Amino acid sequence: MYKLNLGISTDCFTYEWIDESKKQYKIVKLHDYIDAITKEMKENNFSSMELSAGGAWNLKEEEENFPAVKEFVEIIKKNGMKLNSVHLPFALPFWEFDSLDEDMRKLSVERAKWAIGQFEKGEPKYFVIHPGKIDVEDKEVRWKMMEQLRKSMQELCDSVDATICIENMSRGIMVNSIEEMLWLLEKVPKLMVVIDINHPFIDTPEDFIEKVGSRVKCLHVSDRDEIKERHNLPGDGILNWNKIIGALEKIGYNGEFTYEVSLRSKKYPLSLIRENYEKLFENYNNSK
User: Fold this and answer.
1) At a CB cut-off of 8 Å and minimum separation 6, what does 148 contact?
2) Burial class, 287, CB count within 10 angstroms (exposed 0-12 / middle 13-18 / buried 19+)
3) Helices within the chain (DSSP H only)
4) Gap between the Cα atoms of 36 and 165, Å rounded
5) Among 19, 36, 49, 217, who pairs with 24 as Cys (CB 3.0-4.6 Å)?
6) Rg (CA), the chain
7) Contact predicate 150/97, CB 8 Å
8) Of 69, 7, 45, nearest in space to 255 by CA
């Protein structure tokens, strides 16, 4: 029987409903819930979490916020949870590893090195990085930006004592295809991968997993529709979860099964996520 440990991203708890019928919500800061939610996670048999820099962890003023982040890590450990990964910022300036502006690219690398250096060695196990945030259709421009991304990842992997995982992206952002991902991995042997299962549109997520193989170290688990990424609960979308889990077993993946579902569109209590996880693996193992 194949089954993975259950994990979750703090990004799942960034939003609190004001009026669910109107889909109105507010952003909740991490310090408002980290203690209570880690205790509830333990009660629901979650084993690990990803500390995300999405709306909950604003690094606009990094030096002021990092002491609080260290407190979060201690709370996570105190409540019996494993910190599997930290997702570095991605929606703010200075996090553009694929920028054609060389000064911006270098600054992004330096900020990432600084942020990673604030954590103890080996805790977390992985650091997750988005390549950039710009949609680009022009193929010539894309490959110039891919070369900038290669330089950034090479510099980062060579200069920090930590495992860096690049995330596959959706839309027109860099590394949105197997072709681009394999090119990057060949150029930067130390670089590992987090597969966001609801991101691939050019390729299927199961093909992405199989092609990347042993370089897959983390997952972001959610579902989507035919139009765009949605970060819905698995089954609330169009993805084939038996094929996805089958691909994970085929490559020998034994890492965390980390949910990254969005409260912007749905309200998912931990108990429901736990039930969903159990059902996914039950269905898969019964199908073999």
Assistant:
1) 97, 98, 99, 100, 102, 105
2) exposed
3) 34-43, 62-78, 102-116, 139-159, 178-187, 205-212, 241-250, 270-287
4) 28
5) 19
6) 18
7) no
8) 7
Q: What are 187-204's pLDDT values in tens digits? A: 999 999 999 999 999 999
Q: Considering Cα of 237, then 238, then 241, then 247, what sign does the dihedral take? A: negative
Nearest Cα to Cα of residue 152 among 139, 162, 164 = 164
Please return the burial class of 14, using the count of CB atoms within 10 Å of its CB with bins 0-12, 13-18 and 19+. Answer: buried
Task: Write down all domains in the chain, each with its CATH number in brackets.
Answer: 5-287 (3.20.20.150)
The reported pLDDT for the residue numbered 56 is: 41
Rounded to two decimals, what is the model's pTM?
Answer: 0.92
The answer to whether 236 touches 277, Cβ cutoff 8 Å, is no
Q: Within 10 A of 30 (CB to CB), how many other CB atoms are there? A: 24
Token pair recorded at residue 166? 């690049």
- Is residue 49 within 8 A of residue 82, CB to CB? The reply is yes
Nearest to 150 by CA among 131, 136, 137: 131
Per-residue pLDDT at 237 = 96
Q: Are 57 and 92 within 8 A, CB to CB?
A: no
